[in-house]
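Researcher: Last one for today. Full complex below.
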Amino acid sequence: MKTPQERAARLLRWYPNAWRNRYGDEFAELLIADIEERPQSAERALDVVRAGLLARFAMAGLAEWHGAWQPDPARRVQVSLGTLCGALTACLALAAAMWSQLAIAWEWTLPATATQPTMRATLVMSGAVLAFLLLVVLAVAPVGYAIVRNRNSRMVAPLLVLAAAVSLLAFGGHHFLYQWPGSGGHGAGGTLFPVIPAGLQAFAWSLTYWFSVHWFWLATGLGGWEIAWIVASPLALAAAAAAAATLVRRAELSPGLLAYETRLAAAACAVMGVFLGGCGFWVYVGRPPGLAHAGQIDIVAAILLALALAAAYQAQRTALRGLQLVRG
Amino acid sequence: MPKRDGARSGDDAGLAGFGRYAGPATLILSSLADGPKHGYALTKDVEEFAGVRLAPGTLYEALARLESQGMIEALEAEDRRRPYRLTAAGATALQAHLDAQRRVTETGLRRLKANWGAV
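Model: Here's the assembly. Have a good evening.
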């Protein structure tokens, strides 16, 4: 049987370090007294777990901060924007995995075998991807400028990780562009839109092999480099997302820039919502045959995309509330 | 104090912004109106006068909110237990909230008596 002190310490671990630094000792005393009075209480355990997780959500920028452990409002907005950055990167990776399948299928077989709903869904998803990429450019440019201008030494490590991950993705994505069985943007049949180069479709496709049916081809004799790419590319994407989120959290951003980025984030969430709508239309209404067929893995991708989008939306709302405090 | 989601009109706006923590916040402020107390003493006092036992996580969520709104303040810790004290802003917010509650209570009782007699 554990002592009340041990049980209190165990419950306290549900809270983040910053919260424990401020309230840990006094909260542990309360828990010890409560445990001594009521040794068994599921209600107490559930309440502490719930409150601890909520504090962790606040630390991640997904819920409002309260109390003396919170940083200043501008810092809170940056934490939320960092989480937003990570969540939207996950959205983009999942969206690219699904969209590139349709884009490549369009090139090889569509519109000859496509149903009308599939074509409409593909157009909606393509428009959303292009709009999202435009928003990414608009968001990255001023943050990149702020990072370069301030030359903070804490930026070096995440910058190096980001550069390494992006270099690996660019090199690998380009290398496997047209060298994969049954895939690749050959460019012969024309692209989806004149504004979307065949190479972009193929690049998105090669970046997201890890989420495609190629996992099932592992047993059918893929080469060592292909297997290495399937393993390394999602890790590089995750590293890039984490490094980008860290950079956003550590950058010295003015209140005006925070407001600008928060507005862009709202637009990005809306655009990704449109993509998800098109995706749902493709999966549940289009049900196309052949290459554009939506498999179970696409349903999984759509669900994960919805979850990442929900996290991004929540972080955006939290950033917006923090911004109101920054402005007084 | 600015109103947030769920804020109601009236002079109890100070605590209305607490949402589902308004109940625990009222109990805590009422307890601290009698003098500074630490977490466990607060729990026992609230249990005694209101018949409600505040769970530890809920208690500290409400304390953190009250502290960030300037309605209570933390005193020096005594042997790892930190007492909290009601501030003037907290007293004003509690007074306004209880006045509003009293109006509701008196209206309800008056109407019950008029239409239902002694229930």
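Strands of chain B lie at 72-74, 84-86. The domain at 13-114 of chain B is CATH 1.10.10.10 (Arc Repressor Mutant, subunit A).
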